[in-house]
Amino acid sequence: MRKIAILAFVVVSIVTTNACRKEKSQQQDQVTYNPTAMTVDVPAYVKNYVGDMKHPDNNPLTVEGVALGRKLFYEKMLSDNMTMSCATCHKQENAFDDPRAFSEGTNGALGDRNAMAIINLAWNTAFFWDGRRATLEEQAHDPVTNPIEMANTWPEVVKRLQNTNTYPDLFYKAFGTKTIDSNLVVKAIAQFERTFVSYNSRFDKYFHKGDSTALTQQEKNGLAIFKGKGMCNNCHLMNTQLSDNVFRNNGLDVNPKDAGLMKFTGLQSDRGKFKVPTLRNIAKTAPYMHDSRFATLEEVVEFYSEKVQQSSPNIDEHMPDYGSGLKLAKQEKTDLIAFLHTLTDQDFLTNLAFSEPK
């Protein structure tokens, strides 16, 4: 009887201990999952032009979600051979663009379009040069499985993250579950990318904040050309975004090799149309155009001044038939380029909140 009593005591002790551990674990989880709502500091003049920052109802910004997204943005386990992360082709010093003409995938293959900068995308409703994705979450999904980019599969990515000592807890803090899936991965990355706001250039200080000393006279001359003779403001709106986020054919080719938006819509009327990129930090995002054909801002200005192909199909209405071109004078070109350099936001390029976590 004594042996039976001792055995019963041991069993009860084990059961009680396990129950306590389970209860303690549940209590810890309840304490841990307490996401902190996060807002991004955006100037009032930006909200006046384009409204508050937008995000899906099912993916609000939280401190924990952004922190997780930051870690994932720099996570090389997302690629098949664990050599690439999102940051490999979107470098902070280049305004989260790729200085290479075409990004190189894990197997050495090159893409066929220039990587796009990640700047102020929270207000966008179409992504990639051809607009094939409607949200940042959808945009973040594609490079992982693209055979000429990260060349991985989502089940493999999820398995790797799930088997770490750190990620399950981070996902729990951000989303209330330790079971990782691809939807939560892209939600976290999208949250982080929505914090990439850039509104502190010298242009902003002059044009939006009223600091008359922020630009030199030459740069002010360039701004006048931008708004006037150069007609840049037709598509790169001065409404703080410096893009209208519309798809346009800007007359690069008479016979476009890349169908652009037409690849997504199937409409002939969209042939040769590409998303108008923001000009913010443009001096840091070379090379230019979807196919990286221009290496410098000088080449870009020369194109718009002299070389637009007016017979290109579906050429945009904002590219008027100006005969042989705008014919900007040499000094006008120099002034315009000087102004474009004022769109650089040094704080954005060096903000530690966007850098790789240590």
Structure description:
- With 358 residues, the protein is mainly α.
- The protein folds into 2 domains: 44-197, Cytochrome Bc1 Complex, Chain D, domain 2; 202-347, Cytochrome Bc1 Complex, Chain D, domain 2 (Orthogonal Bundle), CATH 1.10.760.10.
- Helices cover 40% and strands 1% of the residues.
- It contains 14 helices and 2 strands.
- It has a two-stranded antiparallel ribbon.
- It starts with a helix and ends in an 8-residue tail after the last helix.
Provide keyphrases for this structure.
358 residues, mainly alpha, Cytochrome Bc1 Complex, Chain D, domain 2, two-stranded antiparallel sheet, 2 strands, globular, disordered N terminus
CATH evolutionary superfamily of the largest domain: Cytochrome c-like domain
User: In terms of structural class, how would the helical and strand content be classed?
Assistant: mainly alpha
Helix-strand sequence: HHHHHHHHHHEHEHHH
Strand content: under 5%
Principal-axes geometry comes out as globular
Largest sheet descriptor: 2 strands, antiparallel
**Main sheet: which strands, in order across?**
1-2
Name of the CATH first level of the largest domain: Mainly Alpha
Using only C-alpha atoms, the radius of gyration works out to 25 Å
Report the end-to-end length measured between terminal Cα atoms: 60 Å
Q: Roughly how much helix do the residues carry, as a percent range?
A: 40-55%
CATH-derived architecture of the largest domain: Orthogonal Bundle
Unreliable residue stretches: 1-17, 23-29
Round the mean pLDDT to the nearest integer and report it. 91
Q: How many beta-strand segments?
A: 2
CATH fold naming of the largest domain: Cytochrome Bc1 Complex, Chain D, domain 2
Overall domain count:
2
Distinct helical segment count: 14
Instruction: Write down the oligomeric state.
Output: single chain
